[in-house]
Design brief:
Blueprint (H helix, E strand, L loop, with lengths): L1 E10 L2 E11 L4 E5 L6 H8 L7 E6 L2 E2 L3 H10 E4 L11 H11 L5 H14 L15 H13 L5 E5 L7 H16 L3 E5 L3 H7 L2 E6 L2 E7 H5 L8 H11 L2
Parallel strand pairs: 3-8, 3-9, 6-7, 7-8
Antiparallel strand pairs: 1-2, 1-4, 4-5, 9-10
Helix pairs in contact: 3-4, 3-5, 5-6
Bound molecules: adenosine-5'-diphosphate and magnesium ion (MG).
Amino acid sequence: MISINNVQKSFGNTVILDGVSLTINKGDVVSILGASGSGKSTLIRCINGLERLNGGDIKVGENSVKNKVELNEIRKKVSTVFQHFNLYPHLTVLDNITLAPIEVLGWEKSKAITKATELLNLVGLQDKSDSYPSQLSGGQKQRIGICRALAMEPECLLLDEVTSALDPEMTSEVLDVLADLARSGTTLIFVTHEIAFARKISNRIVFLDEGKVRADMEKEQFFSNDGGRQDPRIKRFLDKMDSK
Ligand SMILES: Nc1ncnc2c1ncn2[C@@H]1O[C@H](COP(=O)(O)OP(=O)(O)O)[C@@H](O)[C@H]1O
Ligand SMILES: [Mg+2]
């Protein structure tokens, strides 16, 4: 469904992604792990065309991020949830969720509202549709961020450290929603430092190190002593995370 082929990305003279290739299949739940600065966010931004590639290609279905018209098609199929929510402060929760389906997909307002209401129920925030973002907690904002992304009925959801600005209680309410999505077969590409959670919901783990794919393994294999942990770099990363 998504093919990432030998992607190169630099900022100035600094190489950030150095020949990254990955294939994401429908229904995959792929966690992307790696140290801070390893290029995880840059990869996510390349997939939805927020960064221009210096080499290689990324295709979603038949569409390439390198073609402007095709990128618009990709943005209808791939939605992103950001670490800092990025909700529109001047719009109500309902308007935040219905805006893109109406503007980008051309839905009737009533259809968009029905969908939004369904999603608000899913994340347990059905009573917040008339609230403004400033009236919500961080965990609630992020659940709305997820609703907004899902309102586009995307084929794939990109999530970049969506819980790292949240306290533990709010983190768990957001992770619960994501676990439900993973079970329901939504394709997820999930950048996280929540290793235990990644281990629970993913079927595959990708480990990025200095802009390269250091491991791309089935989950069980990645965490086993004779799999991912045989790589000293990965063992060091996992041991450090375990001790946190
Ligand atoms: N717009 C930018 N301009 C210059 N350097 C950047 C930019 N965005 C990211 N970088 C650099 O790219 C590297 C990888 O960043 P990032 O993809 O955010 O890593 P991660 O998400 O894994 O922490 C970092 O060294 C960061 O400073
Ligand atoms: Mg990042």
